[in-house]
Amino acid sequence: MIRGNKMNIKKNLINLAVCTVLSGTALYAPSSLAIAPTLNLFPTSVVANLQTSAASAEEMENSMESIVVQMENQAQLYKDSQCESGSLDAGCAQIKKGLATSYTKMLDKMGDQLPVMKQAMQSTVNVLGKNIRTELGKKMTMRDLQRVIQGKTGAIQSARKRSGKKAGRMSASLKKYHSMITLNSNQSPSQALLAAEIYADASEALDYISLLQMQIDQSKIIMGVGNIWNGEPSEQMMATVSSVKALLFGEVETDLIPDTLMQNIDPAKDDSAWIID
Amino acid sequence: MNTFKLLKNTVLGFCLVSGLTACAQTPRHNTSQSSHQASCSLPQHKKLTVAVDNAQASLSDRSCHYQFDAIHAQLLNIAVNDPSSTHNTEFRSFYKWSIDQGIISSLQGKEYYTRYFTNSFGNVLANDRNVCSSAANKEKLIKSIDRELGSKKIGLQDIMQDRKAYFSAQQTHNDLVFLIETTLLACEKT
Q: Which chain A residues are within 8 Å of B113, Cβ to Cβ?
């Protein structure tokens, strides 16, 4: 009888141990599967900053486009009318006056709108930079970076040539980035390239904004000190206009390399065991 | 006395003959060495398959193993002038044979194959430290990646004439360099 009880207790203990192990496994397994390696690159603040930057860029583009075109036409007219040779003609004086007005208008508008954009860009650069440093820089090796790239899906369409400057309008790029982040909310590995692209663009835009602010300040000083500038197209003015165009409208380049190349793997030709990836 | 003289002359004569024989053997030794060197010669045939057979014949001699790099380079040159989409398989077999013969290590075989016939840059990418800690070697690394792309041009485009695969390698190269530069930029701005 006692022996039988002992047997039961032993059996129960074994059952309990097995159940504990099994339940432990059952509890552990789903959680370990759920925590698949993810890239935490896009916090909500980045999405919000991109929205602000896109809105600000669009506003600037709309207000600047007509002024830039007007200035280019006036500069061309000035050149065609041979006003460059220091003509005292009344027509030339009028063109110069028109140019000066357009330029002042451009500087004022840029001066008003740049700080908002700068703040949003700076915030994007700070947050993304920190996340790229942590997620890609500290947690990954160089080979991991390659794996991330090779896991890239067609969702990422390069907005820039890697070695070149950004292509197209700034607001369009920012909107595109915003929608890409929102669509790929599952934090796929391809987000690494997207994050790098946004970071590089935002850093570049920040440089342009700083340059522009410096040029605007210089121009305002020149215009303000005893009428040094008489409206004649100067290198300073043309450089500022170029910077505005580069910042807002970008440089359109054609990417000759197709972005997505589908590869069919023939099992007979499978050489995966031979590749160091 | 005469017997002693005779013996002395015989010994001297024997020494002389031995010496002459030794001298005569020197050129023979040279001949043997030159024929040995000839067996390490680089493959010359214009067809890759034949050239690989010749290369294997040369490398079968243990004393020719040091010629592996030169023979491999020569095979690549031959393959460029005799392109085919299946030459990657030919080279893979050659690497496998070379590994089996103990001429190169398994890792070296994979490195050769990866360098020339795949779009992976794994050969030149460190896997033992994080990206930020490679900042000091950035320029050197980018140059290695560029060189690796040059090798892929030979393997994928010139030898296999696979433009699609080479474009893919170019794209991986561009993405990789961009991601490395951007990540290192973020690392710098700590």
A: 271, 274-275
Q: Which of A39, A125, A146, A261 to mutate: most B Cβ within 10 Å? A: A146
Beta carbons within 8 Å of B179's beta carbon, 6+ residues apart: A136, A145, A148, A149, A192, A193, A196
- Alpha-helical segments (H) within B43-153: 48-59, 68-80, 87-100, 106-117, 138-152
Interface probe with B: pick from A156, A166, A274, A277, most Cβ of B within 10 Å:
A274
Q: Report the candidate in B125, B123, B136 with the shortest Cα–Cα distance to residue B179.
A: B125
Cα nearest neighbour of A191 on chain B: B179
Gap between the terminal Cα atoms of chain B: 103
Whether residue B151 contacts residue A121, with contact meaning beta carbons closer than 8 Å, is answered with: no
* Dihedrals phi, psi of A164, to nearest 5 degrees: -105, -160
Judged against a pLDDT cut of 80, whether residue A20 lies above it is answered with no
pLDDT in tens, A260-276: 334 455 655 677 788 77
Q: Which residues of chain B have pLDDT under 70?
A: 1-4, 6-8, 10-39, 190
B186–A136: do the CB atoms touch at under 8 Å?
yes
The beta-carbon neighbor of B130 closest among A137, A148, A271 is A137
3-state secondary structure of A166: strand
Neighbours of A94 (CB within 10 A): 13
Angle between helices B68-80 and B87-100 (to 10 degrees): 170
Query: How far apart are alpha carbons A262 and A177 in whole angstroms?
Result: 24
- Residue among A8, A67, A46 nearest A198 (CA): A46
One-letter amino acid for residue A46 of the chain: V
Report the residue from A133, A200, A274 with minimal CB separation from B92: A274
Instruction: Locate the chain A residue with the closest alpha carbon to B85.
Output: A269
- Cβ atoms A13, A159 nearer than 8 A: no
User: What ipTM does this complex have?
Assistant: 0.76
Strands (DSSP E) contained in A159-208 are: none
The answer to whether A201 touches A208, Cβ cutoff 8 Å, is no
Q: Which residues of B touch A137 (CB under 8 A)?
A: 130-132, 183-184, 186-187
3-class SS at A188?
coil
CB contact under 8 A, B113 and A137: no
List the one residue out of B158, B174, B183 whose CA is nearest residue B85: B158
Q: Is the pLDDT of residue A33 over 80?
A: no
